[in-house]
Amino acid sequence: NYQRLEFLGDAVLGLILAELLYDRLPGKREGVLTRNRAALAMGQSLVRLAEKLDIGQAIRIGEGEERNGGRERHSILEDVFEAIVGAVFLDSDFDRTREIVRSWYGPMIDDVERTVAHHNPKGRLQEILQRTLGNDAIAYELVSAEGPDHAKNFESRVIVEGTERGRGSGSSKKEAEEAAARAALDQFDEN
Predict the structure, then answer these.
(1) Which end of the chain is more exposed for a tag (fewer CB within 10 A), N or C?
(2) pTM of the predicted model as reported, rounded to 2 decimal places
């Protein structure tokens, strides 16, 4: 398994991103830097990078996990990405690892605010709408939950003042709600 390398890679990645954000955002406070690092070092950001690098095809998994779509499972892609960072660090040094990680992240770091919004779309949507509509303007509804327990797919929608503003799906209610919030944010960006 990849757990030891994942442990190391997580720490190395966190340090690289902290240093990078510290340099790039000189006027920002600790809370903003922490939120930005979290957005870049976990969840959807790591999944996007793992997919960009086509990591899923190289993972060694068991037959059961293969049948259940393990190569596309977000938690596995995140863990293996961190393990690869750990392996690069062990195989080279910190400076080389920093260089490689920066090349993988590329424009995600240049547009960190958009990455943060993508990381926490529900919070970002709430932030945008709360100013004008108040705290109770947004509601999330579960539309469906289909499939066997080990591989359920959820679909949710976000309602803003009684009107559906976005739909999304995912392997958990949380992922489905986040996808719905992203769809709503995309709508607002277009307008």
Answers:
(1) C
(2) 0.67
